[in-house]
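Internal tracking record. Fields below are filled automatically when a chain is submitted to the structure queue. Please do not edit lines marked as system-generated. If the sequence contains nonstandard residues, flag them in the REMARKS field before resubmitting.
Queue: standard
Priority: normal
Entity type: single polypeptide chain
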Amino acid sequence: MLKHFNWPGLIFMAALLLAWELSARAIASPSYPGFVAVVAALVTDLPTLYAQTGITLWRAAAGFALALATMVPLGIFIGRTRRIGHYVEPVIDLLRPLPPLAIVPVAMLFAGTGSAAKISVIFYSAAFPILINAIDATRATHPLLINVGRSVGLSRAEIMLRIDLPAALPQIMAGVRLSVALALLISVSSEMLLSTDGLGNYLMRAQEQFQIAGGLAGIVVIALVSLLVNTVVLRVEQWLLAWHHERHRLARG
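SYSTEM-GENERATED OUTPUT FOLLOWS
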């Protein structure tokens, strides 16, 4: 099992951490804590960080789940119904470039400053990668598959469910991976702007109190959580698309 580890990467990471600690001790400045000081702050604040991480993950998961549940069927519907696409795509192209944090004032206006506003911003950020990938993947479905579905009497809804969804799933999963990363990013960012809890708020309080080590400990937690979530998403993708990867493996011989 040990042979599967990326030993060069681990050794390089250890060298960076050692260089960080040695340089911090050489500078000896409270504004530049070393790796040991950050780990100590992490251990000291672990109960608080654990609670704040749960809040942040809950908001990110809620916003992402709403985006996934609505944008996959909407994207397949738009991709299959070209006439509808002519009407809604200009609106999508207008809204997509807007930075998610730019809609924070609008979210506050309609949803207040509680979790609903932050989930709305997360939903907005996570929606477009899934939507765009679902639209493009549906339009790329081979016409022969659609003709076969029509020839056996499938309705448009059945074609979208039984043909378009499986065919589009590999590209949709690429959008899902982007959306998961954006959901975590925007969850923390929105908490820095309009929250009294969560990891984003923890970072803001550490900054205001000049707790550099505590702030870096929060960043370490965010990095570790992001790595864990990305690993879970990859495992789910491999499970869902096992047939897809196997087909490509057989095609390569």
